[in-house]
Design brief:
The chain is an all-alpha fold and about 290 residues long. It is globular and about 70 Å long.
Length: about 290
């Protein structure tokens, strides 16, 4: 009799836990869907060709966000070009080469600590270090260097976890065929963990697109239209900084919602490109 009661209790407990998990997933999904639909519905009607293809003119009162779009692209490219080699290289060293596990543990703990630091502190440190000490002044390059420090732990940890999932037998088989350490890593290990690298890239792009506090201190909020090399050494506002300026400083909420909708579309596009890239490398690896 007691066994039957115990079995019934476990069944009720399992059903309750299942209901709570489904409810949690449903609430989370509904919140995300609501936010996406709300921002797109409020922003898309105000997106015009003139808005996205011109620069602002303070004399005529015309608003354009083309410089902000280009600045966003510039800072994403500059950040990824620096953070990906550093993050992947650090992960490969810690996973494949480092022998002292205590040192590895300290570095991993430091990386996790860096991930939790508020972005405003990164902005303050970036302003003092890059803008003043290294004399980069307020520029997109100083903002990109600050974002590198912010995103380095993410890229390093995701790549590290992906490297650990590669079966040890793959390495031993390659060593048995006479391949050297670096050749095994380059031709066997890294192709197997491309998913982790792409995941880190996606997370980094998402954080770069959404960052504003750190960039207000380091990149500035100028709306000048420049080429990529001139733009990197000049002050410039990204889309998130422009959103803050138009909403908070100027009260242009229609423009702010339009920028928010463009940011969402850019995020979707970046995620899709990264996903297609991962599938391409998987297909190429399995061919």
């Amino acid at each position: 009799m007691e066994h039957k009661k115990s079995g019934a209790g476990r069944k009720i407990y399992g059903m309750l836990m299942r209901f709570l998990m489904i409810a949690s997933a449903a609430v989370t999904s509904l919140l995300v869907i609501f936010m996406i639909i709300y921002v797109l519905c409020k922003g898309i009607p105000y997106i015009t060709w003139e808005l996205i293809s011109t620069k602002p003119s303070y004399l005529s009162g015309k608003i354009g966000i083309l410089p902000d779009i280009l600045n966003t692209v510039y800072i994403i490219l500059a950040t990824l070009l620096i953070v990906l080699p550093l993050g992947v290289g650090a992960a490969v060293y810690l996973t494949e080469y480092a022998k002292n596990r205590r040192v590895v543990g300290i570095i991993e703990y430091a990386a996790e600590t860096l991930s939790g630091i508020p972005s405003i502190i990164y902005g303050l440190v970036g302003m003092l270090l890059f803008c003043r000490f290294f004399n980069m002044k307020t520029s997109l390059l100083a903002g990109a260097c600050t974002l590198v420090i912010m995103n380095l732990p993410t890229v390093m940890r995701t790549t590290q976890e992906s490297l650990k999932t590669v079966p040890q037998g793959y390495r031993e088989g390659a060593f048995g065929l006479g391949a050297g350490k670096w050749r095994v890593i380059r031709t066997v290990v890294l192709p197997e963990c491309i998913d982790g690298i792409i995941t880190g890239c996606i997370l980094s792009v998402g954080r770069i697109l959404g960052e504003s506090a750190a960039l207000l201190f380091t990149a500035g909020f100028a709306h000048a239209l420049n080429g990529i090399f001139e733009g990197l050494v000049s002050s410039g506002a990204t889309l998130t900084v422009a959103l803050y300026v138009y909403a908070k400083e100027q009260g242009e909420f229609e423009v702010a919602f339009a920028i928010a909708a463009i940011l969402m579309v850019l995020t979707f596009a970046m995620n899709m490109i990264a996903d297609l890239t991962g599938k391409y490398f998987k297909k190429r690896r399995n061919a």
